[in-house]
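Re: the 164-residue chain
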Amino acid sequence: MPSRFKRANRALRKLRTYLGRVIRDIARKIDSDPGLEAAFAHLLSLARRVRAQERGQRGPKIYSLHAPEVECIGKGKAHKPYEFGVKVSVATTLKHSKGGQFVVHAQALPGNPYDGHTLAGVIPAIEQLVAIRSNGSTPMPDTAATTRHPITSSKSTHPSKSDA
C-alpha cells in the first residue's frame, strides 16, 4: 500500500514539473508581445494556480481548466460522498405550451448555498421574467426548485429517487 502512495506522489511531482516547464516556456515565448501576454494571461494564471494547489488546502481549487467555476460539493452520503459541479436554480411553469415545457429561469449559484435560502432571491426574478414575457400581466410561477447540475459526473445527470 505505501508503495502505491509513493508511486502516485512521484507521478504527481513529474506532472507538476512538466506543467512548470510548459508555463515557463509559454512565458518566455510571449514575453515581448503585449497582445499575446493579454491573450494568455487568464490561462497562465489558471495553470499557475493548478501547479501551486495542494491536496488538503483550504479555499477555492481548480478542478477543471475548461470550466473553472466547478466546485466540489460534499453530499455526505456513503455511496457518493462528493459531486463536482455548480448548484443551479431551475424554474418552470406548470402550463405546457405547444412546443413543450420550457425553462423560465436558470441561474448558477456558486458557493454551495443552502437550498432554503436560494428561493427568496429566485422567485422575484422569475415573477419579473414571466411578467415581461406575458406582456404586462404578472402571473405567479407554479414551481421553483434548486438542484445540483453535475458537470464532470461520470453517471447520468437525471435525478433519481435515491439522490434526493
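The radius of gyration is 22 Å.
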